[in-house]
Specification:
single chain, alpha/beta, D-Maltodextrin-Binding Protein, domain 2, 2 domains, five-stranded mixed β-sheet, 13 helices, about 45% helix, about 20% strand
């Protein structure tokens, strides 16, 4: 309905200049926020800051990152749906609060399909199975052997219960037939600190936040979780090619707003976000974190979200995940 209203209004403009002018005026004139459901330093936060910096330049306004951590992004999502649908508040959403949480939390404060306006998929990254440099495991086989020798005792950290890292672990446990202990944290940054320090054994951490620690020699990448190897980590094998065909536990990031955003505003934001992704410095930055397959239309992102909801609902059910 919103799209039809916009098209009708555009047609009534009467001149060829009316549509571009209305289109340009669709953006808010004041400061804007991108809400992030995790502390600074994690994958979602990094993605948000890359986009916020460039969008602020493009839109000639302040675009700040507003960190509201807790419940694997759910608190930030619940906050965002209560904001005005005028484009001043967006959410850098991800798999945790948008695709996994609906199957985990019986009293979630939002319905994904009803309460959000998809704008654009920013990128899809593998998770990396990582450990510190003192850990003896160097292959997926080593990790599985450890889990089988000490069932339920080998620890895997995540950024929170129900986060992407948590469900990657649950999928791994299902496919490998092992048991392990999940250790949730309040974000990736504190989890990585403990992993480096040896307080936990492993993590299926997002490539975005794990990459700096790997490049700095503090952590080791054992395997990655998309069906094909990321271009930025060509020498790290996938779990799929290591004996578990079809294994896919990707993390993804995208920008959404509250429900009811005007179609003209969504189109304008989507177009400008695609421009940002095409900037060489942004493309290089995201590629270094393994973020691929971003961009495209708002409708494409909406379809993608629907498929992810279905996929992870099955994993939650099969693994009997509780939070």
């Amino acid at each position: 309905m919103l799209r039809r209203t916009f098209l009708t209004a555009t047609a009534a403009g009467a001149t060829s200049l009316a549509a571009p002018l209305a289109f340009a005026q669709a953006l808010p004139t004041g400061p804007m926020r991108i809400v992030v459901g995790f502390p600074p330093g994690g994958g979602t936060d990094v993605m948000a800051r890359v986009m916020a910096n460039k969008l602020g330049e493009l839109w000639h306004t302040s675009v700040i990152v507003d960190n509201r951590p807790g419940a694997a992004g759910v608190i930030a999502a619940e906050y965002t749906v209560k904001q005005p649908a005028d484009g001043t508040t967006l959410l850098m959403t991800n798999i945790s609060n948008h695709a996994i949480a609906p199957s985990l939390y019986p009293r979630l404060g939002y319905v994904v399909e009803r309460d959000f306006t998809p704008i654009m998929l920013v990128g899809v990254t593998p998770n990396l199975l990582i450990c510190n440099t003192q850990e003896g495991a160097r292959t997926l086989k080593d990790v599985i052997e450890q889990c089988r020798k000490s069932p339920g005792k080998i620890t895997f950290g995540s950024s929170g219960a129900g986060a992407a890292q948590h469900l990657a672990l649950e999928l791994f446990k299902l496919r490998a037939g092992v048991d392990a202990m999940h250790v949730p944290y309040r974000g990736s940054a504190p989890m990585l600190t403990d992993l480096i320090g040896g307080q936990i054994d492993f993590s299926f951490e997002t490539m975005t936040s794990a990459t700096p620690q790997i490049q700095g020699g503090k952590l080791i990448a054992i395997a990655q979780t998309r069906p094909k190897r990321a271009k930025s980590f060509p020498n790290v094998p996938t779990i799929a090619e290591s004996g578990f065909p079809g294994f896919d536990a990707s993390t993804w990031y995208g920008l959404v707003g509250p429900a009811g955003m005007p179609a003209a505003l969504v189109q304008k934001m989507n177009a400008d976000m695609n421009k940002v992704l095409a900037m060489p410095e942004v493309a290089d930055k995201l590629a270094s974190f393994g973020a691929e397959d971003g961009g495209g239309s708002a409708a494409r992102f909406g379809t993608f979200i629907g498929a992810e909801l279905t996929k992870w609902a099955k994993v939650v059910k099969d693994a009997q995940v509780k939070v």
